Automatic annotation (TrEMBL):
<dbReference type="InterPro" id="IPR019884">
    <property type="entry name" value="YtoQ_family_protein"/>
</dbReference>
<dbReference type="Pfam" id="PF11071">
    <property type="entry name" value="Nuc_deoxyri_tr3"/>
</dbReference>
<protein>
    <recommendedName>
        <fullName>YtoQ family protein</fullName>
    </recommendedName>
</protein>
């Protein structure tokens, strides 16, 4: 039986690939899903629905189209890993964590110590806080093979 893990958050580093490689090396039966990580493609997700004169409405349409994917994949997952990077504010990642909390969906946060304070509520609802992708892989190994 496959374990479904949704990878949410920061798109500017290879953390997703590191977790996937670690899970494969550990022989874990995990299916990974994610939001669209191509920033331009994500921003343009609703463009086919018609041109907008104000940026708010373009973002509004694209966020709703993106939400179809995000909500569906989070709901179908067994676990969500939410990555917060130190370079950008990931409001979407915080939203995903809140959605998981509302659903009762277990999630793990992945971020550095320098942003513990602003994420205190997000971390408080998480099942674990990891600082490295190796720690996330170890959580997966434990859950699936212990």
């Amino acid at each position: 039986m496959s374990f479904y893990v949704y990878l949410s958050g920061e798109i500017h580093t290879d953390w997703r690939d590191a977790i996937k490689r670690g899970a494969e090396a550990a022989g874990l039966d995990v299916v990974f899903t994610s939001a669209v990580t191509d920033h331009d493609a994500s921003d343009a997700a609703g463009d086919h629905l018609g041109e907008e004169s104000q940026p708010f409405w373009r973002d509004h349409k694209s966020s709703k189209v993106n939400a179809i994917r995000t909500k569906t994949l989070i709901e179908q997952s067994d676990l969500v890993v939410v990555r917060f990077g130190d370079k950008y504010k990931q409001w979407n990642a915080a939203f995903d964590a809140g959605y998981c909390a509302a659903l009762g969906k277990p999630y793990v946060t992945l971020h550095g110590e320098e942003i513990i304070h602003p994420l205190k509520e997000v971390d408080a609802a998480a099942m674990a806080w990891a600082t490295t992708t190796d720690q996330v892989v170890e959580i997966l190994r434990y859950v699936l093979k212990a």
